[in-house]
């Protein structure tokens, strides 16, 4: 069986990828994660007795650690999920985004190149460096603009998007300059189990269950193209298995929704799954001060990955949202763990002024 070095695998998408990879026996996994605020070590507790899974706490900026892990485990692929990933945090404190997303990716590329250059010819050809990125690097679309394609020029608007764009450029350059067999995927907004509740969907689910306001930025008409996380993981495996290198693939769910519609759908499902007498969760919807530089619309044209690699999203939005809400309802301990200490500080920092500013 192959071995994958996954970075940031305790986070939302990485943990879903690892669980699927072990369940479907895609590969043995070495998971390198710094365990920032965004990760709950209990997320992958079910793998603790799995001999094909090994966790290492560490930072992708630590090139000595990277070198020794690569030497020890001799992975066939590196999959880089590690990142600071929340736009609002990048607006309030961009430093960590530059550090991990740009400098960390650079260190990972350097360590990978040094490792790859020493492999046998056959292993060099099979090796892959897969960098997980976002559609936010392309900037914002107008209502009638065509969806983002792989050749859409980069125009990142937030510090988060700019840091991801910087890392994508580095990955591309390591293929063109050194021949490192890299691949980049730019995916739209993901949703599903195990997402940290600072992002729209889990934040709204948990606020609603706690009877707290559901804070919608601006007029709620910003559009995102939502993809169920398991579909994203399937797409990543297809990209890893393909014979192509040096390519970029856009991944999306053909599922554009306004934020207001997403929140209304969550409320409707909660009214059924967790009803309260004479009460609808939609009464908690509150319009609040907008995010600075808020991108209006994202949409992904995923024709390339669909036609070249046979990708097809399996989950539709209503069934995916139902599964997601059921997961949060049935994992109260996980929810409690991620909502402690630091999380409460963040909620105060990001929302206190927003809510008072509008009322
Ligand atoms: P996340 O914030 O849930 O998880 C990130 C993980 O990376 C955490 O476990 C964290 O501890 C770890 N990490 C952070 N800095 C690290 C460092 N220096 N060294 C090692 N580990 C570190 O993020 P996510 O939502 O799972 O996103 C994963 C990747 O996918 C990111 O690169 C993100 O840009 C990209 N992406 C996310 C979405 C989305 O909707 N969530 C969409 C498209 C692309
Ligand atoms: P988010 O989940 O932060 O993802 P991204 O900014 O990377 O797309 O936000 C999704 C959308 O939801 C975005 O348009 C901002 C909006 N949003 C709110 O309206 N209220 C909130 O409390 C949050 C976190 C996001």
Give an overview of the whole structure.
There is one protein chain. The protein has 359 residues and is α/β, with parallel strands linked by helices. The chain has a domain at 3-196 and 228-256 and 299-317: NAD(P)-binding Rossmann-like Domain (Rossmann fold, 3-Layer(aba) Sandwich). It has 13 helices and 13 strands. The chain has helices at residues 12-23, 63-73, 87-92, 95-117, 121-126, 159-178, 200-209, 229-241, 259-273, 303-309, 317-329, 332-338, 342-358, and strands at 3-7, 28-33, 53-57, 77-80, 128-134, 182-187, 190-191, 214-217, 223-225, 227-228, 247-251, 256-258, 285-288. A seven-stranded parallel beta sheet has the order 3-2-1-4-5-6-11, sandwiched between helices. Strand 5, helix 6 (159-178) and strand 6 form a beta-alpha-beta unit. Helix 4 (95-117) runs parallel beside helix 6. The chain starts with a strand and ends with a helix. The mean pLDDT is 97. The protein binds nicotinamide-adenine-dinucleotide and thymidine-5'-diphosphate. Thymidine-5'-diphosphate (TYD) binds at residues 87, 189, 199-200, 203, 215-217, 222, 224, 259, 291. Thymidine-5'-diphosphate is lined by residues 87, 189, 199-200, 203, 215-217, 222, 224, 259, 291.
Number of strands: 13
Q: Tell me, rounded to a whole number, the average pLDDT.
A: 97
Instruction: Identify the strand order in the major beta sheet.
Output: 3-2-1-4-5-6-11
CATH topology of one domain: Rossmann fold
Principal-axes geometry comes out as globular
Low-confidence stretches: none
CATH class membership of one domain = Alpha Beta
Series of secondary-structure elements, N-terminal to C-terminal: EHEEHEHHHEHEEHEEEHEEHEHHHH
Query: Largest sheet, if any?
Result: 7 strands, parallel
Structure classification: alpha/beta
- CATH superfamily annotation of one domain: NAD(P)-binding Rossmann-like Domain
| Gap between N and C termini | 58 Å
Kindly provide the radius of gyration, computed on alpha-carbon positions and rounded to a whole number of angstroms: 20 Å
What fraction of the residues are assigned to beta strands by DSSP? 15-25%
Bound molecules: nicotinamide-adenine-dinucleotide, thymidine-5'-diphosphate
